[in-house]
Design goal:
Helices cover about 15% and strands about 35% of the residues. The protein is built from 2 helices and 25 strands.
């Protein structure tokens, strides 16, 4: 088994620990060493039976381990990953996929990506690095999901769609076929995307429309 450390010990981090346990019940794959988290209040404690090994600066103490970042907010996750790469340029990232995920062999997945239970990913799909696909999502043919995207539970991505870099898709949102969502955009829970959504905005509603733009 390969050693694994989860960056982030809050709610989603605990869910990822459970995901790793589910993987190991199917096939012994990961030796989960514990968590790294910058929260000083939980240092030297255990979280759901796994030790908090230190802050993110401790990536230099576990050179042979693989890491996944279980921080749901895309921009925060991007910042943390960039920081740990500065601290340890040789850091290795794992990819963890729940055994219940249904996925063809015609899917490419980048390093550090987390795919949760009961998700379906069909054919000719490109999923980037450090992507989070939460529970019960679907991704249709020829979709492109760029680095640091977060898909919250029950998101439905139709075929030939493109999800931009560091974008967040709220719980239960849907996008129809052949549409795109720009980089650093947030799409609200339950939104239905029927037209392209630009970069760096918050979009909500059915049909989804931008309500706020930001730098």
């Amino acid at each position: 088994m390969k050693d694994l450390i989860i960056i982030g010990a809050s709610g989603f981090g605990r869910e990822v620990a459970w995901l790793v346990e589910r993987i190991n019940k199917k096939e012994q794959t990961w030796n989960l060493l514990g968590f790294l988290d910058d929260n000083e209040e939980i240092q030297c404690t255990t979280v759901n039976g796994y030790p908090v090994l230190g802050t993110i600066h401790s990536v230099t103490d576990y050179q042979d381990a693989y890491y996944v970042c279980a921080i749901g907010a895309s921009k925060v996750r991007e910042k943390v990953i960039n920081r740990v790469k500065e601290i340890n340029p040789n850091i290795k990232f794992g990819t963890v996929i729940d055994p219940s995920v249904e996925m063809s062999d015609l899917v490419t997945i980048g390093e550090g990506t987390i795919i949760c239970a009961h998700t379906i990913i069909t054919v000719n799909i490109n999923i980037g690095n450090h992507v989070i696909i939460n529970l019960d999502c679907t991704v249709g043919h020829d979709a492109i999901i760029k680095d640091f995207v977060t898909m919250y539970p029950s998101v439905n991505i139709s075929g030939i769609s493109t999800i931009g870099y560091c974008t967040e898709l709220g719980t239960g949102m849907q996008i129809i076929q052949a549409k795109s969502i720009g980089d650093y955009t947030i799409v609200g829970a339950g939104a239905v995307v029927v037209k392209d959504i630009p970069a760096k905005c918050t979009a909500v509603g059915s049909p989804a429309k931008p309500i706020k733009f930001f730098e």
